[in-house]
Amino acid sequence: MKLATLATVAVVTAALRVASPAHAQGVEARSRPGTAAAPSDSALEARTTAVAATLRCPVCQGESIQDSPSELAKQMRAVVRDRLRSGETPDQVKAYFVSRYGEWILLEPTMTGLNILLYVLPVVLVIGGLALVAFLVRRWTASNSTPV
Amino acid sequence: MNWKRAFIAVLIGAPLIALFAYGFSRDPAAIPSPLPGHDAPAFALTVFAPGEPPLMRPAGDTIRLADLAGKVSVVNFWASWCGPCRAEHAALSETARHYAGRPAQFIGVLYNDRPAPATRWIAEMGGQSYPAVTDNESRTAIDYGVYGVPETFIVDATGRIAYKHVGPISAEVLRQWIDSLLPKAAAGDTTPRALLR
């Protein structure tokens, strides 16, 4: 019995790690080396890539403007680059796109309002499901052992 | 026991069905625009197709949003490769002509296209009453949150976006909005929203 609860806890903690959505669009994993030669250019290119990877391509299916080869995505990357070059912070650039395309443009929903449900609900459901399974298994083993 | 199970099944099933009914009745490609109610982004775009008198502007002229202050503006994003743009072209061109001489201005912004095929397209469609401009690198289109063509923005005389239309627009919708935004129609009681549900 003790072993079963221990196993449940282990599974829950493992599930929590997997459920964390922050890893879905890792920025560092998809940085592409800039083609520019000057170090300042490659730094700008890396920052452009980081921001572009968080913005949804409006003419694609679930792709960032960094990953999309479409014309509009290319042009949006140019806008990101120009705004960063002019001194805007990555958050300001993202806020610009949100002001034009709505929050839809962000690949990762912000953790505010109803969006929190997106982050919390999967975790709650996994824990609830595991608790239900543990409860049922416990009841099943108990009812099996008593008649004998 | 069976009744209890049926009740639980309904309790779980009904909200799911309602959720799916809502989800499947929506267009997953539609992007809700935050722009209506806000100031229209400024632009300065160069005319490549002059249009026809009395609405014509010479090719090479720059049309700025600021120039349109005091007028109701219809900003239409289009392209010659765009199929649905053919469907709305007559409505736009004729409605623009209908409002000639009144404080209303139509402008066609070319989206991811070149002036040469666009000019041929206009000739093929039997001409266009209002001027068309180029949008270098889609800067203005991105400023307006455009994600496809055709998209049409109706800007009121104070420079505020009153309405965004995705897909081919009809003469009725254009007239409803322009009439409701023109100064002398202030007393009019037709509300365009009613027309759009």
Q: What descriptive keywords fit this protein?
A:
heterodimer; A: 148 residues; mainly alpha; Helicase, Ruva Protein, domain 3; 5 helices; 61% helix; B: 197 residues; alpha/beta; Glutaredoxin; 7-stranded mixed β-sheet; 6 helices; 19% strand; disordered C terminus
Model description:
The complex is a heterodimer of chains A (148) and B (197). By secondary structure, chain A is mainly α. Chain A folds into two domains: 1-24 and 111-148; 27-107, Cytochrome C biogenesis protein (Helicase, Ruva Protein, domain 3, Orthogonal Bundle), CATH 1.10.8.640. Helix content of chain A is 61%, strand content 0%. Chain A has five helices and no strands. Chain A is elongated. The relative contact order of chain A is 0.12. Chain B is an alpha/beta fold. Chain B has a single domain (44-195), classed as Glutaredoxin (3-Layer(aba) Sandwich), CATH 3.40.30. Chain B is 35% helix and 19% strand. Chain B has helices at residues 2-24, 83-98, 115-124, 139-143, 171-181, 192-195, and strands at 44-49, 62-64, 72-78, 104-110, 132-134, 151-155, 161-166. Chain B has a seven-stranded mixed β-sheet. In chain B, strand 4, helix 3 (115-124) and strand 5 (132-134) form a beta-alpha-beta unit. Classes of the chains: A mainly alpha (148), B alpha/beta (197). The A-B interface holds A 58-59, 71-72, 75-76, 78-79, 98-102, 104 and B 31-35, 38, 41, 112, 137-139, 141-145, 147-148.
